[in-house]
What does this fold into?
Amino acid sequence: MAQRQDERDKRCRLVCDRCGAVHYQNPRIIVCCAVCLNDKVLMCRRALEPGFGLWAVPSGFLEVGESLEQGAVRETFEETGLVINPESLDLCSVVNMTTIEQVAIMFRVALDAMPILTPGPECLELAFMAAHEIPTDQFAWRSTMGDGPERFYRELQTGAFTIQLISLGANDGAGFRSREYRIASIHDTYPEDLQR
It folds into this structure.
């Protein structure tokens, strides 16, 4: 394998010296699940690096053969013991993390009652937390998130949800950008005859 200029797209790629096959390097997909109970979100204290000892929502890498929703509920189960129907998830955000070659897709789900939780091997402890209960210095990767967490909790309280398209900043938070897309009910958007 050698790094060579690909004439088709003018990028430097890994190319096999013997057969000329191009080996593409693509971003990895992370799936996340914000499990909500009233105005609180289920947080996991991480038992692994990166972010050992810090709080984050259940998340992990998408596996081959999984839909985004299936991956999110699997990761949530592995980390918390909570079983969620993939069809109950609502898209919450898409996060570009170009500096670490990853894209995170976050879903949201609301619970009606406090579940029984069991921390998996990747978690030290679990807790439902309101915005003011998460210590900033113990929130994994908080400095890169801009106003994302505050916006999420505000939407959770008002019920006026959006889908966020986010580009994370550097470790100091510089470069954070986000756009929000308002969610409208299909009943508000389309004439009645198209809703059938």
